[in-house]
From TrEMBL:
The keyword Repeat does not apply. Residues 126-435 form the Saccharopine dehydrogenase-like C-terminal domain. It comes from Ohtaekwangia kribbensis. This is Saccharopine dehydrogenase family protein. The lineage of its organism: Bacteria, Pseudomonadati, Bacteroidota, Cytophagia, Cytophagales. Residues 4-120 form the Saccharopine dehydrogenase NADP binding domain.
Length: 443
């Protein structure tokens, strides 16, 4: 009996686990769900006969090896810094590994060894990165095969909330994935190329330099640049392209308000703050403002960031409770940990909330002496706070890839990402049947 081991039963796992259990029943496979909380794993499995919940803690080396040894394919939804530890066990035990995370240097270093053993270590096979790669490469290859030459590629993806969810929320945002990652986002310099010129955006400028994005049928958004777009020039085989930009999508107004928190220093995770047990939301923010006791915190923020008293930035900060005298409720923490804790009070999905995934690509290319443009967009809606659009779009590509691998339909080995037709054709085809599809418009 073939066995899939999925590690992690948290926020993004619900749809993946449901998919794996269905495939297990259809194909006679065993599905192991490992989590540091065995009860959480049991909850995800429910009454499925093919499923088994196990306690899994990657820091317990021998127990981890024993669990991984039971599987043919391991899917890791653990925090990204644990993936290399899982990969080392998979390499030693001869097991395939799939993740939705960016390829780290530690993971890439295992490429030759994995290839020599005939193992696939597939990374970046979730939403962003993942579906963005596959959907982009499908269009890029189509353009190239028709004789076109790419001039520009821009891609933005965001996990947002549906229009009917929390209508009073001025951010139009809640945490639909790891809240720590949201608070820490963008802290490495963003790199991209625009109109033939290399551009670099340090963290302190990131949320000031945004790109307007219009998604047909859904409205206006804003995007900020993601990490290193330049490395995908080679990955996508777009040498010589004039514009290459990948980014994160947010509703209009989000970035200017978030920039206030960045500039204050609230997203810093490098030191613990003092007196956290006595701290209120308001005193947390005030700790980063100037020390002038003759004016209010609001006035300090208005003066420092040129904000209007009833403007959108202060409106968002007030709605989030950041200016309230409510106790934080922690005994210790870094600025980033405290901010995350406070925001979770208002930004945590409620049971009936629906999230929304929005992805947008723009391809500009030349063909037969003419410049042409294709825009492609994908919008996915969650069912509730458990079966979210984020869980669907992160989990389904991993589940489909695991199925294809066990069925012998994927032959690639080594550390790879899903940018070849061997991956994107069958995965996108099945995603379409599951309601996840990009709509293309050519201009």
């Amino acid at each position: 009996m073939k066995t899939i081991l999925a590690l992690g039963a948290g926020r993004s796992s619900s749809v993946l686990i449901s998919y794996l259990l269905r495939q297990g029943e259809a194909n006679g496979w065993k599905i192991l769900i490992g989590d540091i909380s065995q009860d959480a794993a049991r909850d995800r499995i429910g009454r499925a006969i093919v499923g088994e919940a196990i306690a899994f803690d990657i820091t317990q080396e021998e127990a981890s090896k024993q669990s991984i040894a039971r599987a043919d394919v391991v899917i890791s939804l653990l925090p990204a810094h644990f993936h290399p530890m899982v990969a080392q066990h998979c390499l030693a035990l001869g097991k395939h590994l799939l993740t939705a995370s960016y390829v780290s240097d530690e993971m890439m270093a295992l490429h030759d060894a994995a290839k020599a053993k005939g193992l696939l270590f597939l990374n970046e096979c979730g939403l962003d990165p993942g579906i963005d790669h596959m959907s982009a490469m499908q269009v890029i290859d189509k353009i190239k095969n028709s004789g076109g030459t790419l001039v520009s590629f821009e891609s933005f993806t965001g996990g947002l909330i549906a229009p009917e969810t929390d209508p009073e929320n001025p951010w139009r945002y809640k945490f639909t994935w790891n809240s720590r990652n949201v608070v820490m986002a963008g802290q490495s310099t963003a790199k991209y190329i625009q109109n033939g010129t290399y551009r670099y955006i340090p963290y302190q400028q990131l949320f000031k330099r945004i790109t307007p994005v219009s998604v047909p049928g859904y409205g206006e958004y804003e995007g900020y640049a993601n990490r290193d777009s330049l490395k995908y020039i080679d990955t996508y085989k777009l040498q010589g392209i004039q514009t290459m930009l990948r980014g994160t999508l947010r509703n209009k107004g989000f970035c200017s308000a978030w920039n206030v928190l960045v500039q204050l220093g609230c997203c810093d995770d490098t030191y613990p703050m003092e007196g956290v047990d006595r701290m209120t939301h308001r005193s947390f923010i005030d700790a980063f403002a100037d020390a002038d006791k003759t004016v209010s915190l609001e006035e300090k923020l208005m003066r420092t960031f040129s904000l209007a008293k009833d403007g959108p930035e202060l409106t968002r900060l007030r709605w989030s409770g950041l200016l309230d005298d409510e106790p934080v409720g922690l005994t210790s923490g870094t600025p980033a940990q405290i901010l995350e804790y406070i925001l979770n009070k208002k930004w945590k999905l409620k049971p009936a909330d629906n999230d929304l995934i929005v992805m947008w690509h723009r391809f500009v290319y030349e063909q037969s002496g003419k410049r042409r443009e294709i825009q492609a967009s994908l919008v996915a809606r969650g069912e509730d706070a458990v079966h979210t659009a984020m869980a669907k779009t992160v989990g389904l590509p991993l589940g489909i890839a695991a199925k294809l691998l066990l069925q012998g339909k994927i032959k690639r080995t080594g550390v790879v990402i899903p940018v070849d037709a061997e991956f994107y054709t069958p995965v996108l085809q099945e995603l379409k049947t599951l309601g996840v599809e990009l709509t293309e418009t050519e201009k």
